[in-house]
Amino acid sequence: MLLKQTYWKIFLGFVITTTAAVVGLSWWNLSSVPKTSSTSKSLLTTRPIRTLKAHSVWVYAVAISQDGKTLVSGSYDGTLKIWNLQTGKLLDTIDGHSDAVESLAISSDGRMLVSGSWDNEVKLWNLQTRKLIRTFSGHLDDVESVAISPDGKQIASGSWDKTIKLWNVKTGEVIRTIKQQDAVRTLVISPNGQLLVSGNEDGKIMIWDFKTGKLRTPLAAHDQAVWSIALSPDGKTLASGSYDRTIKLWNSQTGELLHTLSGHDNGVWSVGFSPDGKQIASGSYDRTIKLWNVQTGQLLNTLVGHNKAVWSVAFNPQNHTLASGSADKTIKIWQVPSKTDIVTLPSAVELAAVLTKQPESTDSTLFYPLNQKVYNQVNQAWEQRGRSQENLVYRLGAASDGAILGYQLVNSNGGYSTEETTKKNDLLSRLVKRRPATREAIVHFRVVFTKQGILQVSPWQGYNTTN
Q1: What are the two backbone dihedrals, phi and then psi, of residue 428, each rounded to the nearest 5 degrees?
Q2: pLDDT in tens, 364-390
Q3: Cα–chain center distance at 136
Q4: Pick from 13, 52, 8: which is nearest to 305 by CA?
Q5: Cα–Cα distances in Å, from 119 out to 122, 141, 237, 292?
Q6: Which stretches are transmembrane (predicted)?
Q7: Contact between residue 235 and residue 221 where contact means Cβ atoms under 8 Å apart
Q8: Domain residue spans in the chain?
C-alpha cells in the first residue's frame, strides 16, 4: 500500500558553439518536409495521441494483449476496465476485487487475464467473456505483482508478505512458495519460460530457475526499493526501476550491470521494453515517461502529459505505441518513433556535414556527444550570442538548404514555451541578413538544450522569403 511505500526549475542554457560537442539531437529528415507546410514532429516534445478516462481514482496497472487490440487497466477503485485499443472505446468494467488492483498480466494467446490486488488475492479471468475463472488465495498481505508463464500453465505472484507463489492455472493449487527477506514488489517470467526474476523492497533482484525454484543469481541492485522489472523480448536484457530514481540494465544471464540510467526527478515506478527491444520506457513519480536507448543507455525522449505520478507503462507488442496509467485517473496512449539512426559526432561541424544524408526510411537521427558532461562545461545563456554561435547557425543553414535555428524553453516538468523566430534581434533575423537576396525555401528549427544533456533540433515550419 502507499502507506507502506513512503516515499524548479531546470536551468536551460541555450548555447551553440563550433567547438562544443553536440549534446544530442533528434532530426526529422528534411526531404520529407514540404517547403510550404508545417510539421510538429518531435521526439522531445511528444504528446499523447489519446487519453482514456473512466476510472474514478488512480490507475495502477495497464496491460496490452499480444495482438495489440485490447488494453486492460487496473485501479485503486478495485475494478478492471477493458478497452478497445484501436478506438479507445471502453468495452467493459469488471468488479471482483475488494481492494486496489496493482498488477495485471495477459496470457500470450490473449485468452486469460490475471489480476493481483491489495485484497491479498490473485484472480484469473476469461478475457473474451470477462468471467472469473478462478481465485487464488494464500498470500497474507497485498499482492504487488503477477505474471503468467508463456505456456499459460502457471501464474507467479509476489506479495508484501515476503513470498513468491507459483500457482497451477488448471487446479488453482500452489506449486511452490519461495520465501524472501523483504516484500516482493515486482516479478517477471522470461519469454522462454526458464527464468523468474523478482525485485524486492530491500533493493535486491533475484534471478531464479523457474522450473526448479532454485536461486541462480542474486543482485544487490539498487540502494532503495525495486519497484519494477522487465525483460527484453529475447530475454537477454533485464531492466529494473527503483525508488532511488534510476533504471538499471543488466545481462540477465550473467548478472552484469550494463547501464545505469539517470534522469528522473523521483522514483521509477514502471519500466517496459519496446517490441524490438531497442528502447525502454520508464514511468515515474515525477509525472513523466522517459524513453531510453537500450544499447547506449542514452535518453531519447521525455513524454509529458500526466499531471500526477505515472504508475505503469506498457508497449503495444504490434507497433510503437505506448500506454501509461497514472494517479491522475487517466490512461494515455503515445506514439513512439520506431526507426532511429544513432550517430556519435565529436563536433557540430561534422554534424552539419551529415544532416542531409539520412535515408528516407529513417524517422529520426540522434546525435550523441563523445563527452558525456557537456552540460556541466557549457553554462552560457542563450542571450549570450557570440560570433561562434552565428557561425554555427550559418553552417547548419548552408548544410541543410536553409535551416534556421529558433528556440524553445522546457521546464523540469516537461512544459514548454516557444519563442517565435520572427522576434526582433533573434537568430532568424541575423541569419536572413547573411543570405543572398533570392527566394529560397527556409525551414525553422526548434532547439532545446536541457539539463539531462539533450540538444533537440526538429523541423518546425517551412516558408519562402525574399529577404
Answers
A1: -60, -50
A2: 433 333 333 322 222 222 222 333 333
A3: 32
A4: 52
A5: 9, 8, 32, 35
A6: 7-28
A7: no
A8: 50-335, 348-358+365-459
